C-alpha cells in the first residue's frame, strides 16, 4: 500500500484569491480536510503549539482538532481563540461530540443547554 507522508508544514498559497484554510490535527482526519481544500499540519507530540503558531501566521481560517486542543495549555488556547484574527475554532471529534474547551460548548454548558 502506497502511503503519502503527512505534511509537516502547511501549503501556503502565494497570493491566489480565496481563504487559506488550515487544519491542525491527526493524520487520519487531516486526509479528509485535504479533500475539502485545507492545508494541514500533523504535529508530533510536543510540537502542537509550534504548529498552531505557524497556522496562525499563514492561515485565513484555522481549525484545530479537539484532541489536540485538550493537550494544550489552557491560557495559550484561550489567547488563540480570543485573538479573532485569523478565525480559530475547535473542530468536533469524529463522533460528533464537542470539546468542552470550544467556546460555543462552554456557553451551552453554562446555560444548561447540554443535552
How would you summarize the topology of this molecule?
Blueprint: E1 21-24, H1 27-35, E2 39-41, H2 48-58, E3 61-65, H3 66-69, H4 74-83, E4 88-91, H5 103-110
Parallel strand pairs: 1-2, 1-3, 3-4
Quick structural summary:
With 115 residues, the chain is of the alpha/beta class.
Describe, in plain words, how this protein is organized in 3D.
The chain is of the alpha/beta class and 115 residues long. The protein contains five helices and four strands, in the order βαβαβααβα. Strands 2-1-3-4 form a four-stranded parallel β-sheet, with helices on both faces. The longest helix is centred in the middle third of the chain and has 11 residues, at 48-58. It is globular. The model is unreliable at 10-17 (pLDDT under 50).
What separation lies between the terminal Cα atoms? Answer: 43 Å
Rounded to an integer, what's the Rg over CA atoms?
14 Å
Largest sheet properties: 4 strands, parallel
Could you state the order of secondary-structure elements as H and E?
A: EHEHEHHEH
Question: How many strands?
Answer: 4
Provide key terms for this protein.
115 residues; alpha/beta
